[in-house]
Amino acid sequence: MEWMMILILVRYPQHMDSFWGCFNRDHDKTKTSICTFLSVLVHFNVIIPNLKDKAVHLRKALDIILQWCFNHNFSVRLYALLALKRVWSLAGDRAEDGADGLGGLSTVIKACLNQAEAMQSTGNANKNWTRIQEHFFFGAFHPIRDYSVETIFYTFPSLSELADDEWIPPWKFEKLPCFSESPSFPLRNPAPDLSQLQPGDWIQQDKGEQNKEERWAEVQKKITPWRLGIQEQEPELQLVPQQRAARLGKLHGALLVVASLIDKPTNLGGLCRTCEIFGASALVLDSLRHVSDKHFQSLSVSSELWLPLLEVKPLELADFLQVKKSEGYCIVGVEQTANSQSLQDYQFPEKTLLLLGNEREGIPANLLQMFDVCVEIPQQGVTRSLNVHVSAALLIWEYTRQHLTSGSAEGNSKSEK
After folding, report:
1. Is 282 helix (H, G, I), strand (E, B) or coil?
2. Per-residue DSSP letters for 71-90?
3. Euclidean distance between CA atoms 85 and 250, whole angstroms
4. Residue 151's closest CA among 304, 27, 3?
5. What distance in Å separates the CA atoms of residue 301 and residue 303, rounded to the nearest whole number?
6. Which of 23, 21, 65, 27 is nearest to 44 (CA)?
7. pLDDT exceeds cutoff 90 at 124
8. DSSP code at position 139
């Protein structure tokens, strides 16, 4: 919203008076809004060149900012001081000479800025003053230079620490004609400054009682687990998606999930997401064309970029299973048979191939005989079967749980030795 306001004022400077009017609303109910408007003034240097009466608007900006430097709310004062520091720097020598009526403000402004510098010796206030100045939106970011698809859909979400499935890389837009034909809205940033930054950690918060729910939501903020080991995986992140998935797959476990008999894109998309989250080595589909299906993508939420996908037609399954048997895989079927074992009692071998049946017909008889074991999920209800994605998710989690536990036990054993 702040960036949008800056872009509007740069392109349509006639709306500047409407912007000044935003500061005259009910002050007690618009603390967050005031911080938003002050954030726009931090970037006043890109707005003022397009204004006709520059001196008038500069004086107006300083008058307004000074009022908020004395607000009772700490966050508002902090934003106001940063805006004052940036806008006052635009006045330069003209202010020292008393030009444009700025001389009378000089003493008050210097006192406010001295107050800001004094924050550097007062604990938490010092941290907040440092953080807000180092925040990417007030530091390396430039509202005009960084106006691109990459910044909006990829860089800002990553710097804001949104979950990675909400980032959209620029290459996904490359084939859209609107971007190839519109140089005014570039696809990528011309400079790498933003991509080299670390996520900002300064978050405006009002510590009042009325905002307990918002602060609790911040405490419960979603995290991205793979980032915990991102340092050693950084080279892989620069590869194209298919190479990235193949490389990252080598870091995963030995569970191979075969879904060649499944034909519903939603089930396949959900399976892809589950397999990637729990570290399966690969997912086998009857056709890789499923990946471009919008129903698949709505459930996979980009997990296909991080998981190796293989293509094996249903008619090729018997030969594929035979090859995997020779490689040491235990072939496990998800099916209720006379000799099937209960999931709660079965111990999965490390090299497990999990074959899932069709949504309607299940697993064909000619493939059942190739199984080393059939595993069934204990049921207490009347309905005979679960959705295939749900069944698969239960088995994949149980495999992961067993091997996470055994991995921890091995690690403890090695450390004891």
Report:
1. strand
2. -SSHHHHHHHHHHHHHHHHH
3. 51
4. 3
5. 6
6. 65
7. no
8. T
For residue 312, give the 3-state DSSP assignment: coil
Lowest-confidence pick of 178-182, 222-226, 299-303, 393-397: 222-226
Question: What's the rounded Cα separation, in Å, for the pair 304 and 274?
Answer: 11
What pTM value is reported for the model? Answer: 0.50
CA distance 317 to 311: 10
From CA 274, how far away is CA 241, in angstroms rounded? 18
Name the token pair of 372.
């080393």
Strands (DSSP E) contained in 46-155 are none
DSSP one-letter code for 154 = I
* Residue found under tokens 């934003």: 79
CB atoms within 10 A of CB 275: 29
Quick one: pLDDT at residue 9? 95
**Element housing 375 (H / E):** strand 373-376
CA 116 to chain centroid: 33
Q: Quick count: other Cβ atoms within 10 Å of Cβ 205?
A: 13
Helix (H, G, I), strand (E, B) or coil at 334: strand
CA 109 to chain centre: 40
Predicted confidence at residue 382, as pLDDT, reads 74
- Side-chain-side CA neighbours of 126 within 13 Å: the count stands at 5
| Adjacent-strand bridge partners of 284 | 258, 310
Residue 146: Cβ within 10 Å count: 21
CA atoms in the 13 A half-sphere facing the CB of 241: 13
Pairing of strands 341-342, 330-334: unpaired
The DSSP output letter for 181 is: S
